[in-house]
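Entry 12.
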Amino acid sequence: MKQGAVHQCATQLAERLNRENIPYAIAGAMALGAHGYERTTADVDLLITRDGLDRFKRAYLGRGYVDKFPGSKGMRDTATGVAIDVVLAGDFPGDGLPKPVAFPDPESASVQGDRFRILTLPKLIELKLASGMTAPHRLRDLADVLELIRAAQVPRTLADVLDPYVRAKFLELWEAAQAIELE
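Predicted 3D structure (tokens):
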């Protein structure tokens, strides 16, 4: 598995970012999968700094990547047709309004996965929780955390390293994940 267009896009994107020495982290569903909860996705979520994005676009726009629309952060891989959704370090998840949890610098909040750098488990969970807590249209993010807790058997003690802003929601979802499904 992991041979489809989305994985091909993420792998090639990572190779190019590494070649340019641009810190990054793959986030979203691909990071969930790397941490133990596989779900289908049609795009690549990329965490990068503003400077990193500017450098990447100077090097690769028109050379395998195009803007989603003029002036957008996001791009499309021309070889695979896969969309790349970009989130910038320092911006805020969910509703986009200031809150204690912000998108972190990818250099300090990522680990090397099998094929590319991914958000650390605590940062991925913090961002998903903050997003789902503040944006009604992002409830999938809360469900992702619940399913990740189940699939990866995330320990309750992870709450100790999470930002206090999201800690109670994590514990609520952790308790829910422990429930035995009745048929």
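Annotation: The chain has one domain: 5-178. The radius of gyration is 16 Å.
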